[in-house]
Amino acid sequence: MHAIPTLDDLASDPMTHRFEDTFNPPGLTNFLGAAQVDHDLVAVRSVNFPPLGSGDTISGQLFLDGRFLRSLGVPITVVWRPDRVIRSARVGELEIETTTVCPPGETAVVVDVRVTNHGGEARELRLGLALASAVAQPAEPWLAPVPPSDANRLDVDRARGAIVGSSPATGAACVQGFDAAPALIVPGASAPADSGADGAAWRGEEIHSLSRLEAETRIEPGATWRIGYVQALAHAQEQALETFDRLAADVPGAVRAAEQLWARELTDAFTPGAGATSGSLPVLETSNDALRELYWAGVLGVLWFRRDSPDGVLGRSYDTLMPRYWQSTTFIWDYSLSSTVHALLDPQTMRRQLEHWIATDIHTHFGTEWLTGAPVGYWYSVNDFAMTRLVRDYVRFSGERDWLDRQIATADGGARTVADHLGEWATAWRGLRGRHALADYGGTDNLLECVSSYVHEVASLNAMNVWCMRVAAELAAVRGDNGAAAELRVAADALVGDVQELYVAGSGHWAARQPGGELVSVAHAYDFNTVAMAIAGDLPDAQRDEMVAFFARELQSETWMRALSASDPDAAFSNRPDHQWNGAYTAWPADAAHALIRLGRDDLAAAWLPGLASSAHQGPFAQGHFVEGIVPAHADRGAPKGPPQEPYLMDWACSSAGAFADLVIQGFFGVDVPFDGSAPRATPRLAAVDPDARLRGLVVAGRSYDVSTDGIVASA
């Protein structure tokens, strides 16, 4: 088996669904923006290339012989690859297959449509599309979950057979049409954004009549007919028309170009000095299919979110979600969960991103967006820990310890070194204490959002304060301040006892203390994962065993896990599958397996890998997957992705999937890169996985290393 993935290696299983199933349609990107296919054979939605937005507008819905395809109730089968989405269905004697891509370097989507006549006679066919246009280009930062859109003026370009939508406010344009002359073209009615004129007001939205395109053909028995659909966005109408013309001239060529782009990107990600990124990932050689698949999924789950927009003020950035929500936003928390991959794959971008965050007030937002650099959202209480982890990982893997002396001015105007900032994050918890010894981390919005009992003094982040102070102590010692290092270590050791006050004796899980002192039991995976990362070595063996037993009994499933025990009273609070009873967030299974290793049960983590890997066959890991059995599956294996609509609100992919690559590198291979710049170490735990597995080309401080059961050595 080859060690660098091909496009077919990463392809999803065939996923078959019908209209209104709990199915999350796949997304696409070309590093400029993103798009999502819809519950249809041609339609696309959420076509957004910041600063060009079209919200969650759906366009290109298919009509066959004048009838709306969805009304036929036919099942649609979808296969995703990094470069394309293939959709297919059988309608009577017709087989329809479409290939959708985001062409490289273009703010556009194309769909190559092929219709085969399996009947015994020639057949006339009318193929129509319902088109919508809502392109916008606001000057303001994108601060809402759904990208901006605008009521468009609609015109017909009869020479091209295209519908031209444009934003009266900004001039942004969207041109849509076939790559062949249509038999029919009917513009929809334009409606002002502030009224229901020419449209129907429904549930507070403006529903405008859609434009229509229709092509006609005659297909002989056994023959295949093709036609292409192009949707091109641009800052101005002239640019949009040029893009449309360029793509409509060769839609199959655009499909091939997307394939070539992604094949090259996958190879470059594992090749030092190649490609667009400033680093590379080590190559994994193993006979364990599950280990390999999860590692590749972890790498792809970060690479997929790279954004190289010329309109971003930060240069290259990495989005957190796609393709539906929070485009152009990078969440500190999610970025930190893929910290190892960022540090190896693209350290220069990571450094620039960290410097930008340090310059903001990380106690007032959950991330920033890259169009303007503006802060987004409310405070996530994880930020101090997340930033500590990110800075530590960047310095460890890059070897750039001099960066710790870099002065960075902050939102309050005071310039301090990166090392000083890290020291402040490590002890910021002291300012969050109320009547008790532990920090109060606020309400649901500051923590898990959809778990009402997981508030205030939670075990996870208070345990992480122990870890952060120990990291700060390590840094102080490296810099020669042994007195400060000793004080931090003593404080960290003392805090362990305070955290232990939250443990529910004999249960394996923890409680959250309320401001009045009440302890509310919360059987949540985040405590399991994070306490194990922070203080596993401080826990008695019996408590470690109880935690493992709790996880296996209440949270673990065959192919995924629950974030919250189904026996927890708060299970009735929400149906969001990222943090609740019915599923788990992207990174939680990877972190849980890593927690098992830290708690001494790498055998259990290894046994879980085949089930987890079966969930990696739907494209990149979603923001949340359902535990198997909760909803009907659309593929033959794995935990289904949560859908984007209420009440689930799960995006199709999330960049914290890099945690799966970290599980392989630092979990099973046991790689340990000291903060002080000394040689990397490794304590592999491969016996139950693949004793012959190897990591080749792990780059630390500019040197390449290979890791195996025998340990870590410099590459030959």
TrEMBL record:
<dbReference type="InterPro" id="IPR012341">
    <property type="entry name" value="6hp_glycosidase-like_sf"/>
</dbReference>
<dbReference type="GO" id="GO:0003824">
    <property type="term" value="F:catalytic activity"/>
</dbReference>
<protein>
    <submittedName>
        <fullName>Uncharacterized protein</fullName>
    </submittedName>
</protein>
<dbReference type="InterPro" id="IPR037018">
    <property type="entry name" value="GH65_N"/>
</dbReference>
<dbReference type="InterPro" id="IPR008928">
    <property type="entry name" value="6-hairpin_glycosidase_sf"/>
</dbReference>
<dbReference type="GO" id="GO:0005975">
    <property type="term" value="P:carbohydrate metabolic process"/>
</dbReference>
